[in-house]
Amino acid sequence: MKFGVDIPFVHHLGFELMLFEGGHSEIQYEAKPEHLNSFAVTHGGACMTLLDVAMAVAARSVDKEMGVVTIEMKTSFMRPARGMLYARGRLMHRTATMAFTEATIFDSEDQACAHATGTFKYVSRLPTGPRSTNTLNVISTD
Fold first, then answer.
1. Rounded distance, CA 21 to CA 90, Å?
2. Where exactly are the structural domains of the chain?
3. Beta-carbon count within 10 A of 35 CB
4. Could you give the strand order of the β-sheet that contains 66-77, starting from the edge strand earlier in sequence?
5. pLDDT tens track of the chain, all 142 residues?
6. pTM over 0.85
């Protein structure tokens, strides 16, 4: 299953999209040795990226033509994240321009390791090409 867009950092980390529909997402991830911290568990930054992507995918799953950008994110770490991880995201509420989401990372024993809530802004995607690669045009409506 594809994310619907090319996200080089997500590809680098090795995230695998398992579910992308109806306001829900699931992403599978097993940290590589270079993604571990000094305690030999998945680095908090990698976990936060996994949570961020799971929430963004859940937000996009109801309108796959739109993009989203993270406005804010709050993360709580509950236990070390080891081995194969599964992030499950959920769109809790949507307005015309904003998505309110949550996601949890579970280990292979289905124990919650980290949880996040996040707010995302829906944005139109730009055409891709040599001049528009890695650019995002967010227009303020204020």
1. 10
2. 15-124
3. 18
4. 16-21, 24-30, 84-94, 98-106, 112-124, 66-77
5. 688 788 899 999 999 999 999 999 999 999 999 999 999 999 999 999 999 999 999 999 999 999 999 999 999 999 999 999 999 999 999 999 999 999 999 999 999 999 999 999 999 987 665 444 455 555 444 4
6. yes
Please list, residue by residue across 49-88, b when 16 or more beta carbons sit within 10 angstroms of its beta carbon and e when fewer do: bbbbbbbbbbbbbeeeeebbeeeebebeeeeebbeebbbb
- Give the count of alpha carbons within 13 A of 91, CB side only: 23
Instruction: Give the C-alpha distances (Å, rounded to integers) separating 78 from 81, 101, 102.
Output: 9, 19, 15
Phi, psi of 131 (to 5 degrees): -85, -20
Residue 46 gets which letter from DSSP? H
Q: Which two tokens stand for residue 42?
A: 């998945």
Evaluate whether 94 touches 61 at the Cβ level (below 8 Å): no
Hey, what's the torsion of the CAs at 76, 136, 9, 22, to 10 degrees? 60
User: In the CATH scheme, what architecture does the domain 15-124 have?
Assistant: Roll (3.10)
